[in-house]
Amino acid sequence: MRVVLQRVSKASVSTNREINAVIKNGIVILLGIENADTEEDIKWLCNKIVKMRIFNDREGVMNNSLLDVDGDAIVVSQFTLHASTKKGNRPSYIQAAKPGVAIPLYEKFIKTLEESLGKPVGTGEFGADMKVELINDGPVTILMDSKNKS
Predict the structure, then answer these.
(1) Which CATH class is domain 2-145?
(2) pLDDT tens digits, residue range 96-139?
(3) Model confidence over 61-70: pLDDT tens digits?
(4) Strands 18-23 and 2-15, how do they pair?
(5) Longest Cα–Cα distance in the chain
(6) Taking the domains of the chain in order of start, what are their residue ranges?
(7) Is 16 helix (H, G, I), strand (E, B) or coil?
(8) Which residues, 6+ apart, have CB-to-CB distance to 91 below 8 Å?
(9) Catalytic residue positions?
(10) How many Å apart are CA 150 and CA 136, to the nearest integer?
(11) SS3 state at 106
(12) Which of 25, 42, 64, 86 could form a disulfide with 68 if both were Cys (CB 3.0 to 4.6 A apart)?
């Protein structure tokens, strides 16, 4: 499971010109799921995400977590995070999980993140053509892969 975390001062995700979610201070999480992913990957990532110290304290040092700042989150499914660009110029998405595998894991990820944060998170619509607007605060962008825990 791969994620791109972007610390934002505001963000939204829309589908078919309809706004699905809007947040202010928090993170946008682009989530890529592969066939080998399990609930253990979800638990590990959600725990890391809510405790990741990427928000400034009073001295302007990144010492605070999403929990510390009572920040919000938007989760956007993004199979292209598993693109292989080794051959040719057309990315291969063979590592990305098909919907039958990915959707239950995506839904479990959202539920686990909500439980970890103690509040609802915004989402896009799985598999849809979405428009994500954000102001990356910092900018702070973190890449994480549950297969690279150590």
Answers:
(1) alpha beta
(2) 999 999 999 999 999 999 999 999 999 999 989 999 999 999 99
(3) 999 999 999 9
(4) antiparallel
(5) 48
(6) 2-145
(7) coil
(8) 80, 83, 84, 85
(9) 80
(10) 28
(11) helix
(12) 64
